[in-house]
Amino acid sequence: ADSIIAFGGGSAIDTSKAVGLELGVPVVAVPTTYGGSEVTPFYGYTEGDIKKGKRDRKMLPKSVIYDPALTVSLPANVSGPSGMNAIAHCVEGLYARDANPVMSLLATEGIRVLARSLPIVVQEPANRDARTDAFYGAWLAGMVLGSVGMAVHHNISHVLGGTFRLSHADVHTVILPHAVAFNHNAATEAIRTVAEALGVKDAAQGLYDLATRIGAPTSLKQLGMPEDQLDRAAKLVIEHPYPNPRPVEYAGIRQLLENAYRGELDLNSELSVQHRGRS
Questions:
Q1: Do domains 4-64 and 76-273 have the same CATH topology?
Q2: Which phi and psi angles does 6 have, rounded to 5°?
Q3: The predicted structure's pLDDT at residue 275
Q4: pLDDT, position 259
Q5: Exposure string (b/e) for 78-92, b if CB count within 10 Å is 16 or more?
Q6: 164 Ramachandran zone, left/alpha/beta (phi>0; psi -120 to 50)
């Protein structure tokens, strides 16, 4: 073969990027979900119950074809979480260690357009204008993810997906508002930007409400996470912490996971207030 056509969601595109890199052939990506993998220079994989990744700009697809007509039959329970996954890339891009003004502009626009389009995509699956907007948001999110780092949200999501085999996009959807609450007082300007992009007063609550509005899962319990494994998950997160505005310590992560398991967003607990004053 002299090229690879990657058609489908993030897993299909990541697999194609890995094969293309190994064979030294170009990839043409035709995404059908909204995670943004088609414009990132890395792929993820699970080895020994641990989520890992490989980064190399050579694997970037040479061309990307966005055709909203290919997504009109995508079920709401896939479309919604897929878009929330993209929002997570944008949110963490705002407070990543290597965040920069250009990527922050893209991230803000990505949150805004996805928050506007996802409810329509879910309620009116055949609405191609909304599907087009969602693809635009996916492109923005992928550009952000591929240009700046990740933080505690992705850290936790990778553990839950890699070790406990929970659905990738669903995990991102559930964890995102809790991660934002966790970082609220350690990244105040970034979180304020998220709230403004969502058009709400509180970013974490706005993200939780958006997930509810599009019928996405809001608890780890819904995803089949064993409650007796929350301790293990917290320990795995702190063993290999990603750079994050707030220190990644066991007590805070364990409480975050407990809240996420129950689907209870506690904006007034020690989870969000114990680091008040940091910026």
A1: no
A2: -100, 110
A3: 41
A4: 98
A5: bbbbbbbbbbbbbbb
A6: alpha
CATH entry 1.20.120.660 includes domain 76-273: no
pLDDT digits (tens, 9 = 90+) for 61-94: 999 999 999 999 999 999 999 999 999 999 999 9
Domain boundaries, given as residue ranges, for the chain: 4-64, 76-273
The answer to whether the CB of 233 falls within 8 A of the CB of 239 is: no
What pLDDT score was predicted for residue 266?
A: 80
Question: Which CATH code for domain 4-64?
Answer: 3.40.50.1970
> Taking a C-beta distance cutoff of 8 angstroms, is the pair 81, 216 a contact?
yes
Structure tokens at 80: 């919604």
What residues of the chain score a pLDDT lower than 70? 268-279
